[in-house]
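Incident review: delayed structure delivery

Summary: a single-chain prediction request sat in the queue longer than the usual turnaround. Root cause was a stuck worker, restarted by the on-call engineer. No data loss occurred. The affected request and its eventual output are reproduced below so the record is complete for anyone auditing the incident later.

Affected input:
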Amino acid sequence: MRNPKKGNVAQGLLAPRAVRSETRIWSAAETPSAVSRLLGSIGWRSRFPASNHSTGETVCRSSAAPCLYAVVFALSIGMWGCRGQSDTDSVTNGAAELTHVTLQLNWFPEVEHGGFYAALLHGFYEDEGLDVEIKPGGPNLPVIQQVDAGRVDFAVSGADRVIFGRDAGADVVALMAAMQHSPRCILVHEESGIRSLKELRDVTLAVGSGPAFYKYMAKKLPLENVQTVAYPGSIGPFLANPRFSQQAYVFSEPYLAAQKGAHPVTLMVSELGYDPYSSVLVTRGEMIQKNTDVVGQFVRASLHGWRTYLADPVRTNRFLDEINPDMEPGVLAYGVEKMAPLCLPEAMSVEEFGTMSEQRWQTLVNQLAEIELVDASQLVAAELFTTQFLERADE
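Output delivered after worker restart:
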């Protein structure tokens, strides 16, 4: 669930926990089509390098050495405003010299980051000559600013955030989109009788402060007698009030609400046409120019990781469960099932995984300009992204 974590996170660590066994294994009869295609593309079995999760430190590097996830958030905040050198350098791992790079997540490690962790755990980054450090995100972490400032080499963000960054002058470029469709939804109770966003009325709606998707909703929908309140960061108020609705991700909160006895209905924001790419991998334009080979290696390994994760998520989910102990049992398996068709829609081939189009980026720019969040005249859709590394990965 996308709410601030407690306990050990305050000390800047995500400690391992006992591995749960609730991860779902799909039978051949019920395997989602997107997953079936991925299974065929990579083969069911993948190699898993040995890893040690028994210590109090979280293994978050592709080399053998464990590392601490981060320093205390307050200390990190002090660093975000400082421009520094890129973390890209070389380290020695046995006989091989690996290039050290950093990946900054936009949230705590969850299902939407699974492909990157799969690439790490399966050794795909190391196979490409990379020593990858994955840094967890958290509330209000300025991911785009960190990339632009050179504090990290790569990051995970949303397509709308990329546009906001470019509009503000940040040197950020999207490299691949793990999710072709947005997982953003509005959660309502079945008992409300509401079955579409156009029917959203006579409810209290909890949303975050200033989210672009809600501004777009407010412009396109009547929202008759809808009272907005601050997003509480949990499903507690939703469970307590049948006329309460809230923002959610389709692979998380609906499961949690159902587990508590509610009957949630998900209304996808994308049905309005507002559908940003999600779990977008970004870097600096300078990084592409000066370290082209490293960017290509990272994208290639990440693609391999995502295809593997969606086809066979079991071991990666166990690891995510260990390093993010606040997640509910079963939510990761549920999450992969719901996320797979967002990553690989029916009309898309496995080879097209991660791709992006200028038309989609231009549509999003126009939508954000329509709700007066960006200046479309200052943005060129073709400069927001590149598919050059996706094309090379399939060669």
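Verification: The chain has two domains: 7-181+276-393, 184-272.
Action items: add queue-age alerting; document worker restart procedure.
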